[in-house]
Amino acid sequence: MTALVVGLVVAVALLAVLVAGLLRAHAEVLRALHQMGVELRPGDDAPAGARPAGPVNVPMPGVRPTPARPDATDVIDLTGATPTGDAVSLAVSDVGHDTLAAFLTSGCATCRGFWEAFRHVPPEVPGGARLVVVTRGSEAESPGAIANLSGAVPVVMSSEAWEHYDVPYAPYFVYISGPAGRVVGEGVAAGWEEVRTLVANAVADGTTSPPPTAGSSGTVRGRGRSKADQERDAVVDRALAAAGIEPGDPRLYPESIDERSTAG
Amino acid sequence: MTSPSRQIAAMGLAVTPPSGWEASIYRRAAIDGGITYPVMHAATVALPAVRGDYGGGLVELLGPDDVFVSMLEFGPEAAGSALFRTLNAIPGLTPDVYRPRQLQRTIRGQAGVQRFFTVGGRAFCLYSVIGALANRIPLTDRANQLIGTLRVGTV
């Protein structure tokens, strides 16, 4: 009898500890949500009659950047290997063209439709963006399998790109504006026609041509020019103008250095 | 924002393309038992899928502010020849070395240069084209930014 009582006491004590732990964990979850700005019962402090009914509203602070890429301008060139073992680096920023990166795998069923669409002829991308297929590197994909799937679209095998662009699943598409050096759109689609339509709409809306980011020169051709270089250009331009030489003057474009010397 | 530069390496060659540059290191498939050697291409325009070792199919795309650089390896027998023995390091370029007549394919306004050298017993030709001879001073600077990142190791 005594043993039974002792056993019951121990069991009740253990259950009490378990319940206390659960309540504590619950409280920590509520506290964490509160710190994130989420109120599961926003009307708790209000009079009972003033509490809203229906679903709980969770505030979304603007467009959600992907967790590993909180800044849309945090872009990297597509650097890796081709399925045939060549090393390659394709520029996506500080260039005049846009890039549509298609993150595909050799195994996913939906990706097969894209591989097939890209096999024979490079598909036209609205707005003239360059289409590039990005797969994981050779540690995760078979180069031979990718070589068999690839065709008319350049392929870069780069796990680094997958991680940097925080690709959640395949197929996944990221549209990068080259002049602005930023991601201007991304998402998933079931087929190429769907991607093409989404990009066409974005081009028509002008969202693929964002204004240059702060600090940029505003033109690709102005990239990398120091203030001293720009000042020197201005001095040269003024001197040429004073000598009657305007932009486009044929004397600025000699066929050879010898010609320039004799002309001068 | 410009993306940080990342080195690519293959076949004993390495290059770190500066922002706005594209690069590729490749070797063509051998035909009829022949031997092919690595080639490095870098340009400030998008590298077309089909292009010649000396930039055919690419140089036509160069604008007046663009640059193309190619480094082509030759066979080990070339390393001992007089042509390749003259220089024993990857050469930098100066604006005056670019000439329209050095182009593999003459395109009005463009200029090119070729330099032969040997590094680590491997013989190379450095070939560069600029989009406009008139802009040779800043374009030579751009070419040297790329050339300065070239590395030659062992295969």
Give an account of the 3D structure:
The complex is a heterodimer of chains A (264) and B (155). Chain A is an alpha/beta fold and 264 residues long. Chain A has helices spanning 2-35, 109-119, 143-149, 159-164, 192-205, 227-242, 257-263, and strands spanning 78-81, 87-90, 99-103, 130-135, 155-157, 172-177, 182-187. In chain A, the strands form two sheets. Chain A has a five-stranded mixed sheet with strand order 5-4-3-6-7. A two-stranded antiparallel sheet of chain A has the order 1-2. Mean pLDDT of chain A is 76; it is low at 33-64 and 214-225. Chain B has 155 residues and is of the alpha+beta class. In chain B, the strands form two sheets. A five-stranded antiparallel sheet of chain B has the order 3-4-5-7-6. Chain B has a three-stranded antiparallel sheet with strand order 1-2-8, with no helix packed on it. The termini of chain B are far apart.
How would you summarize this macromolecular structure in one to three sentences?
By secondary structure, chain A is α/β, with parallel strands linked by helices. Chain A has helices at 2-35, 109-119, 143-149, 159-164, 192-205, 227-242, 257-263; strands at 78-81, 87-90, 99-103, 130-135, 155-157, 172-177, 182-187.
Which key phrases capture this entry?
heterodimer; A: 264 residues; alpha/beta; five-stranded mixed beta sheet; 7 helices; 7 strands; B: 155 residues; alpha+beta; five-stranded antiparallel beta sheet; three-stranded antiparallel beta sheet; globular
| Through-space gap between termini of chain A | 119 Å
Tally of contiguous helical segments of chain A = 7
- Rg from alpha-carbon coordinates of chain A: 30 Å
Number of helices of chain B: 3
Oligomer: heterodimer
Proportion of strand residues of chain B:
25-35%
Give me the side-by-side strand order of the main sheet of chain A: 5-4-3-6-7
The H/E string of chain A reads: HEEEHEHEHEEHHH
Q: Runs of chain B with pLDDT <50, length 5+? A: none
- Can you tell me the overall shape of chain A? elongated
Query: What value does the Rg of chain B take, in angstroms?
Result: 15 Å
Mean pLDDT of chain A, rounded to whole units? 76
Adjacency order of strands in the biggest sheet of chain B: 3-4-5-7-6
Largest β sheet strand count, sense and barrel closure of chain A: 5 strands, mixed
The residue fraction in helices of chain B comes out at 10-25%
Mean pLDDT of chain B, to the nearest integer, reads 92
